[in-house]
Amino acid sequence: MIDAFSTVAGLGRALRAREVSSTELTKLYLDRLEKHGPTFGAVVTITRERALREAAAADAALAAGNTQNRPLLGIPYGVKDLLATKDAPTTWGAEPYRNQQFSFDATVVEKLTEAGAVLCAKLAMVELAGAFGYNNADASFTGPGRSPWNTKFWSGGSSTGPAAAVSAGLVPFAIGSETSGSILTPAAFSGVTGFRPTYGAVSRHGAMALSWTLDKLGPMARTAADCNTVFGTIVERAVFPSGRASWVHSDVMARLANKRLARIGLVKGSWENVQPAVREHFLESVEVLRSLGHTISEIDYPDLPYGPAVSVIIDAEGASAFEELLRDGRAKLLRAKADQLGGFESAATLAIDYLRAQRIRAKVRTALMELFEKVDLLVSPTRATVAFPIGPNFDEVYRDVRSGPSVIGSMNLIGAPGIAMPNGFGEHGLPTSIQFNAAPANDSFLLNAAIHFQQALNLFPKPPV
Amino acid sequence: MTTSRRDFAKSMAVLAACPPLVPFANRLTSDELARIEQSLKEAAPMLERLRAFPLTNADEPDFV
Prior knowledge:
The structure holds 2 protein chains of 2 kinds.
Chain A: H1 8-16, H2 22-40, E1 43-46, H3 48-63, E2 76-80, H4 107-114, E3 118-123, E4 146-147, E5 150-154, H5 160-167, E6 173-178, H6 184-190, E7 193-196, E8 216-221, H7 224-234, H8 250-256, E9 263-267, H9 276-291, E10 295-299, H10 306-321, H11 323-327, H12 337-347, H13 351-374, E11 377-381, H14 407-413, E12 418-425, E13 431-437, H15 443-457
Parallel strand pairs in A: 2-3, 2-6, 9-10, 9-11
Antiparallel strand pairs in A: 1-3, 4-5, 6-8, 7-8, 7-12, 11-13, 12-13
Helix pairs in contact in A: 2-3, 5-6, 7-15, 10-12, 10-13, 10-14
Chain B: H1 5-17, H2 30-42, H3 44-52
């Protein structure tokens, strides 16, 4: 009997030991997607026919013993519905695109197919990945994503479906996307592990564009080890040899290569005024890191206009990316009220402000790379609160909580890798989460640190689904 | 007829003194346009923080 909450690694062992076939495994997850997907607003399209075809091919490869260096062979998965696939609509979560069809697979899907993984579902997302400034959980033509821990609360966005589906054991892993928080936030709100790779490390060919200078694709799974396995399959080795992009500070890379223990910087201001359970579990996690031998210090985060810079960049690039929706007025077909007019507002962004934001971005990179000379990892709570309730606007809840420096925004501005992992439970039985961030191109170092932390914390929560 | 840079600058100054220019406004009702203009006014403090940040001529953009 296979546990639907098994890790990718565990499922891989079971497949290679012939304890279960890929077809059996695939049917298990297809049935769970059909049965539970609607409860969590997690699914757009179940790709049953394709999945069974790919599972049969995986079973043939397993029978032939063709398994070497194929850790994802026969493993089911889902993708955020902003990745093009040739066998199903690609809706971008938005009414104007609900019948959109591509004739090719996104590069990430191609890589996973080549690795023998089995695509089971196109997963729900916030419409246009939040391009037009949604302020409410009900911001997708499929309705709000619901947390498997408490369905009155949001699963987080904009990768709502990948987070909910992994959390509920509807797929072992999924591919999400992040422009500024769209992997880490839903991972935190749904109690799963979400990894945002260095900008440029994973091909975006076939992925919906929201912001060309910020968009990244990355895995969401039950563990950091599984994220590492998936990342190893989808990373662009040709332009990212041994985890390094050309623009990255090579001295930082060299210093961290094969390093096991880190100098960890706790971001001052990130945990003091958050929800009590978030603070409590963060401090417990810090003790776990200390027990592993890492050096811990508190660091002052540079005071720069991260939030305004990210907002202006997303506004300008998002309005350009979806200009056709504004030009023909179909933006008004979007689900969330804020999105119906938000794009028009974004289109009013002045060129001088957009360029100013990009010029400030250079200052941000300089300041944060100086910080990464002093510490190897930046650690903070992923979110100041547990998940937002479904119903009220985001800015109407948790008003007494202050999240401190915009770690997620600033790390996205410099294209840095980050990972969010569950570290406890707070209000309403909802998960809390901790994030690690490293300098760009230190993805492997970051993932290794996360794997060791997660093994020591030993918290791999399963909701009652 | 050509437009001199000075004329262009003058027209930009006139625009700057007007309510914010909302592209594709032909797709909006007057009520929607008013709501967008109000929202843009509310976003002004955020933009002011961006605009107050000191930059020099030598500071180039960093797109990625």
